[in-house]
Amino acid sequence: MYQKIVIVGRLGRDPEMRFTPTGQAVTSFSVATDRQYNDQAGKPVKETVWFRVTAWGKLAETCNNFLQKGKMVLVEGRLSVDAKTGGPRIWTAQDGTPRASYEIVAATVKFLSARNEGAGGAPVAEDDMDSMPSEEIPF
After folding, report:
1. What is the largest CA-CA distance in the chain?
2. Phi and psi for 106 in degrees, rounded to 5?
3. pLDDT tens-digit series, residues 28-49
4. Burial class (CB in 10 A: 0-12, 13-18, 19+), 55
5. Is residue 81 within 8 Å of residue 102, measured between CB atoms?
6. Contact 88, 49 (CB under 8 A)
7. Which of 59, 75, 78, 133 is an S-S bond match for 55, by CB 3.0 to 4.6 Å?
8. 111, 71 in Cβ contact below 8 A?
C-alpha cells in the first residue's frame, strides 16, 4: 500500500520548531492552498483549504531556518488521519465549536519563493540582503 499527497501553497504563519524529549527536531507550519472557479451563476468563487504540516529531523531544522509567513512551498508527504474516524483530525476550538484539520507529515518540502522575497512575496530591500544566507538552500 502507498499513500502520497502533494500540495502547493503559501505559509499562513512562521514555522514553529520544538524538540522531542530525545532531542529530535519537529517543525510545524500551516499552508493555504487556493482554487478559483465560477459557480453556476458565473460568479467567481475563491476556495481556500488549510493544511497543517509537520516536518521531522534535518528537514524540520531547514524549514525552520528558511521559511516564513507568506513564502510559497511545495510539500510532499503522507496524510495523517485521526485514528478514531479515519478522516481529518477532529478537535474542539476554544469557543466550543467542532473543528477539523488536514494534517500532512512532510517527506519533502521545496521552497518555491525566491530567496530575496520576504513575507507575502514582497521583495526584500537591498540593505536586508546582507542578512540573507549566502549559501544555497539545501534540499
Report:
1. 56
2. -75, 135
3. 999 999 999 999 999 999 999 9
4. buried
5. no
6. no
7. 59
8. yes
Whole-angstrom Cα distance, residue 63 to residue 96?
32
CA distance 75 to 100: 20
Per-residue model confidence as pLDDT tens digits over 53-84? 999 999 999 999 999 999 999 999 999 988 88
User: Which distant-in-sequence residues (6+ apart) come within 8 Å of 34 by Cβ?
Assistant: 9, 46, 47, 48
Q: How far is CA 24 from CA 30, 60, 62, 76, in A?
A: 20, 9, 13, 21
Class of domain 5-131: mainly beta
Indicate the pTM of the whole model: 0.76
Grid cell digits, residue 29: 507550519
Q: In this structure, is the dihedral angle defined by the CA atoms of residues 40, 41, 44 and 46, taken in order, positive or negative?
A: negative
**Per-residue CA distances from 40 to 34, 35, 49 (Å):** 19, 16, 21
H/E element, 76: strand 72-80
